[in-house]
Design goal:
This protein is of the alpha/beta class and 324 residues long. Helix content is 47%, strand content 12%. The strands form four sheets. A four-stranded parallel β-sheet has the order 2-1-3-4, with helices on both faces. Helix 2 links the parallel strand 1 and strand 2. The longest helix is centred in the N-terminal third of the chain and has 33 residues. The N and C termini lie far apart (112 Å). Bound molecules: zinc ion (ZN). Zinc ion binds next to loops.
Amino acid sequence: MLFLPAARRPSFSAHALSRFAQAFLIATLLTCFGLTAAALAQDTQPKKKVLVCSTTQIADFARQVVGDRWEVGCILSAGQDPHTHEVTSDDIALIKRADLCFQNGWNLEGHDWMGVQARNQGKPIVACVTGVKPLMIQEEHSAEDAKPVQDPHAWFDIENAMIYVTNIRNAVRDLDPDHAKEYNARAKLYLYQLRGLKQWVAQEVNRVPKQKRILITHHDAFGYFARANGFRAVSPVGWTTGELAGGSIEQRQQVVNQIRELGVKSIFLETSTKTETLEAIAKETGVKIGGALYSDAMGAPGTAGETYIGMVRENVLTIVNSLE
Ligand SMILES: [Zn+2]
């Protein structure tokens, strides 16, 4: 057997080491290249701006305007009450990511929770009611010389919803002027749809004789709808369900009296508020419950009320079918 000094012997371990080193180098390069390519690809994807809304109907308006150009987040979900909402750590985390925030305004968000959080995080915030002609209401529990407050449920007059959409369009256009044409075009289409909705509501409501247009709900969410469509809106609670809510025995009795005096056929629950008070009134007066209306929040995804147009359409059908 030929003996070679160790240094000249083809060393198995040296070969293996060298092959391993090559393989390692190639793998490392591939991995690095792969990662770099992936990272580059990610970097070249335009990062979406984030828009955070307080209520579900505002989030729907915003989506109609920005399409998929922005990520649209919403603090409240279907059926949640904005008057009584308590801010969670998830809400704060969402607002932290926002480039722009939208709220309803006029204290729909009890204690201005959306405005306070946006300002705490240094985020720009727009109140969608800006430019709406307010319906002024007297708080039931307040002193007689107290000034009336603005009813915040302005979106139920479709003309006002159109002002909300215009405010949203203007704010996103200001922040992202490069895509202004796109926002203008989407808003234009949606405003056409809202004009069509308004005409349809007027036609449907005409099925209810004027003397029967009395809308009794848990709280005063339908003042603007009533004013726009010739209804009288009555509630045992007042303009808010929060701690400023009325709900005195006298108010409840007034509702009972009106149901009896006016021969009201049906009263309505709301999907985002408690139902006990109205159920008790229905029992006491023998009046029917005509159904549940979408008031301060839209319906869950997959339901007919999952959009603003859907919520208005379903409400009008429920009201008209119960009162005509
Ligand atoms: Zn409300």
